[in-house]
TrEMBL record:
It holds the Pfam family Hemerythrin. Residues 147-166 are annotated as: Disordered. Residues 5-124 form the Hemerythrin-like domain. This is Hemerythrin HHE cation binding domain-containing protein. It comes from the Bacteria. It comes from Micromonospora palomenae. InterPro entries: Hemerythrin-like.
Length: 166
């Protein structure tokens, strides 16, 4: 298995896109299926944004000052996703706004992931060596085990607060 940071993050993106598609397919089905998929989406996003906020983003910001604006925009996009995730975590799948809120979350995350993959990950890959990307990836792998898994976990909330006050 690759330890390259960008490979790892793109694998996460792929899994998110798969869950988003599953949710879209489940829009007409039973609410319990949508609830189950949203739980999975919230877990995937909580872990992923945690690893990016705690490792990838600060590292890129430090090593590649030219990408500062991209990183700042990414933190803000995570913040919007954090708010939607926290609201969804407190909402029941039977709520009339559940599908609408999930759809807005999916649209936001798809846009964000697209920007990471198209606009600034390639610049990071070009500027950093393979060893550096592997070292960042190894730190993310180590951190993943203890990463928060729900939007209301203390570590997830601390991450969200740090990102807007840093
Ligand atoms: Fe991100
Ligand atoms: Fe990402």
């Amino acid at each position: 298995m690759s330890t390259d940071a960008i490979v790892l993050l793109k694998d996460d993106h792929k899994e998110m896109r798969r869950l988003f598609k599953e949710f879209q397919k489940a829009e007409e089905g039973p609410a319990s299926k949508r609830q189950q998929l949203v739980n999975q989406i919230l877990e995937a996003l909580t872990v992923h944004t945690y690893l990016e906020n705690e490792v990838m983003y600060p590292e890129v910001r430090k090593l590649l000052p030219d990408l500062e604006d991209d990183i700042l925009e990414s933190y803000e996009e995570h913040h919007v996703a954090d708010l939607l995730c926290a609201e969804l975590a407190a909402m029941d799948a039977s709520d009339e706004r559940f599908v609408a809120k999930t759809t807005v979350l999916i649209e936001n995350v798809e846009h964000h992931v697209e920007e990471e993959e198209q606009e600034w990950f390639p610049k990071v890959r070009e500027a950093l060596g393979r060893n550096q990307l592997q070292e960042i990836g190894e730190r993310m792998i180590a951190m993943r085990k203890d990463a928060p898994r729900t939007p209301t976990a203390p570590k997830a909330i601390k991450k969200a607060v740090d990102a807007v006050t840093a």
